Amino acid sequence: MTTVRDEIQKETSTVEAMPANETETSLKTAGAWVQLNDIVKLYGSTPAVDGVSLDIPPGQFVTLLGASGSGKTTLLRIIAGFLDATSGQIVIDRKEISRVPVHKRHIGMVFQNYALFPHMTVEKNVAFPLARQKVPRRARKEMIAEALAAVHLTGYENRLPRELSGGQQQRVALARAIVARPRLLLMDEPLGALDRRLRESLQIEIRRLSRDLGLTVINVTHDQEEALTMSDRIALLADGKLVQYGTPEELYSNPSNEVAARFIGESNIFTGTVHGSPRGATLSTSAGQIILPDTASAELNGNEARIVVRPSAVTVVKASAAIDQSVCSMPGTLIANIFAGDSRKVVVDGDHGSELIVRMDASEPFGFEVGEPVVLTWKPSASLAMVA
Questions:
Q1: CA angle 213-218-219, nearest 5°?
Q2: 317 and 331 Cβ atoms separated by less than 8 Å
Q3: Is 15 left (phi over 0), alpha (psi -120 to 50) or beta?
Q4: Rounded to whole angstroms, what are the CA distances from 124 to 109, 156, 175, 236?
Q5: Are 281 and 275 in contact (CB under 8 A)?
Q6: pLDDT-based confidence at residue 17 (cuts at 50, 70, 90)
Q7: Coil, helix or strand for 109?
Q8: CB neighbours (10 Å) of residue 299?
Q9: Worst-scoring range by mean pLDDT, 79-83, 192-196, 380-384?
Q10: Distance (Å, rounded) from C-alpha 150 to C-alpha 141?
């Protein structure tokens, strides 16, 4: 069974001891350049990580996003050195470190369960990695003060963990991870144990801190909202494979395949065969023709394809309304009207056999009843076409 001390020793062993002449520098540093080249991790013949390659520029905040079993935590632990890859290379600042011992990788780590010593004060918890690395005592006080100030915990030095809230305890863990000034910070579901409001607050705070310090950060989460909020780039993983790597805007607006479209945000997905004509291409579905955007690839013509439409791009109209022939339309029956604070979620049972979602501003008037036949419409430009 893993104890608090085990987790602390794991965490602090990832941070290399600092040379004595570097202990007087500030927390601000240049982030590490991280390159993962075809990383594979096998358990028997089963791949937990299957040929993942990533290039993470210095100072970037990158999130490894995916469902349970996607390989994201395994990949993070390979970077930290807690696990050995079956094959592939880890390159940091142009140096291959796959065989470098954990304690020489100069990496900070934050865990979900905080891993604080309950009998130690905040100051002693933050000082722990410095003491293990034999940083001179004269330098520790200033380094601890800088780390606590960075996470807004100045004045909490003499409190015990039990005297802190969950958010404050996670700030202590964060201060301990940055006190030795690593250039790379790894975070394994650091906000998973917190309530929603506190989690949202700390998302912004951690993002601000990473920018202020210049750190390269690799964060693991299954929460897509957290990934979209905090990240410069997102690496979406599924079944050990890299599905898509790009900015939050790219993954949301231009998912590379159905897996990405379904995982990032809500999506309406239609499948059919593409037919071209002088007036433009259409997707033939069981419920009728859907006009494809002008940007749809000519290579789709005659092939089975899917289009993805985000719920915010869809409008609900009466079944009796006149429909502009230049827009896409899909008939159905309204089965749910859900008030969700700022937005309204409308669920429609489409005539093609699956549920469709519409997201509207909750302040807009809504003159429809559950059970009423309706038509959903959207502009062809709102559709993203891809090979099925």
A1: 105
A2: no
A3: beta
A4: 18, 11, 12, 37
A5: yes
A6: very low
A7: strand
A8: 10
A9: 192-196
A10: 14
Mean pLDDT throughout 45-49? 97
Q: Which residues contact 278 (CB under 8 A, 6 or more apart)?
A: none
Token output for 47 = 């791949």
How far is residue 10's CA from residue 82's CA, in Å, rounded to a whole number?
8
Which tens digits make up the pLDDT trace of 283-336? 888 777 889 888 777 778 888 989 999 999 999 999 999 989 889 999 999 999
Chain centroid, CA 87 distance in Å? 25
DSSP track, 74-96: HHHHHHHTSS--SEEEEEETTEE
Q: Look at the pTM and tell me if it is higher than 0.90.
A: no
Quote the CA–CA distance of 28 and 211 in Å, as a whole number.
Answer: 9
Under DSSP, is residue 1 helix (H, G, I), strand (E, B) or coil? Answer: coil
**Whether the Cβ atoms of residue 314 and residue 376 lie closer than 8 Å to each other:** yes
pLDDT at residue 113 greater than cutoff 90: no
Pairing of strands 233-238, 184-188: unpaired
Q: Please give the radius of gyration of the chain, using alpha carbons only, rounded to the nearest integer.
A: 25
Question: Are the C-beta atoms of residues 25 and 40 closer than 8 Å to each other?
Answer: no
132 touches 146 (CB < 8 A): no
